[in-house]
């Protein structure tokens, strides 16, 4: 295991769009909060590619939700 997980891409897009943010604006907002989430990482996550668990944690912190809510049920 390399510390990567697959996130629920539909939930990620839903959360981002509910705030009216583009991927670029979300990446900037994360950076403003000292969260390590790049636009490239967001694109990977929203396309269903695996990302580091740390990224999942940073996104969960940004959205103020539990990490489990972002994880794809089939990521194990």
UniProtKB/TrEMBL annotation:
GO terms for molecular function: DNA binding. Signal peptide: none annotated. Pfam families: HTH_31. Residues 12-70 form the HTH cro/C1-type domain. SUPFAM superfamilies: lambda repressor-like DNA-binding domains (SSF47413). InterPro entries: Cro/C1-type_HTH (IPR001387), Lambda_DNA-bd_dom_sf (IPR010982). Gene3D superfamilies: lambda repressor-like DNA-binding domains. This is ATPase. The lineage of its organism: Bacteria, Pseudomonadati, Pseudomonadota, Gammaproteobacteria, Alteromonadales.
